[in-house]
Amino acid sequence: MKTRDKLIAVFFVLLIGALGWIWFSPSGLQRAPDISFKNVEGESLSLQQFQQQGRPVLVTFWATSCPGCIKEMPHLIEMYHDLAPRGLEIIGVAMAYDPPNHVMRMREEKNIPYPIVLDIDSTIARAFGEVKLTPSHFLINPRGRIVHHKIGELDMERIRTRITAMLNSNSQG
Q1: What's this model's pTM, rounded to 2 decimal places?
Q2: What's the half-sphere exposure (Cβ side, CA atoms, 13 Å) at 31?
Q3: What is the model's pLDDT at position 10?
């Protein structure tokens, strides 16, 4: 009986250690998908090009009918203006069900400065694990790892702090 109890204790210690490593792993576990796409201006983009440049990327799935998406847009725009010159890229992915003319009108009305992609056939949503809900966000570090995934509105102060730390570590080495 004592050997069994020891084995159970060792198992739980290893389990807790593994979960802690996953939770606190700075490089993230999941690689960002290897995808390319065109923004609404027709420019070709790929997540790998930003990784090769050592830039963090925030991919945000949104829709014009999503109140949370519209609420956080001014904050994303402000963060883009502040941090894009230092290396941040934000990519707004409009959901397949969102009519392109609505997306373009919203882009113009809100004066969105970051690239917008129309995910007409849901290829990008599938590549990120069947994204169905908006807003959904994926923060990808400069090494191409997804280090933060959030369904719902972002904690802007927290995400800005995390991105700034990435940008600071990139500029130091």
Answers
A1: 0.82
A2: 6
A3: 63
pLDDT digits (tens, 9 = 90+) for 97-155: 999 999 999 999 999 999 999 999 999 999 999 999 999 999 999 999 999 999 999 99
Pull the structure tokens for residue 41: 């201006």
Residue 88 in contact with residue 60, Cβ under 8 Å?
Answer: no
Return the structure tokens found at 26.
């700075």
CA distance 51 to 103: 27
Query: What pairs with residue 136 in β-bridges?
Result: 61, 151
Beta strands in 18-135 (DSSP E): 30-31, 36-38, 44-46, 57-62, 89-94, 116-118
Q: What is the CA radius of gyration of the chain?
A: 19
Residue 155's contacts (CB-CB under 8 Å, 6 or more residues apart) are: none
CA distances from 56 to 9, 88, 90, 109, 138 (A): 40, 5, 9, 27, 11
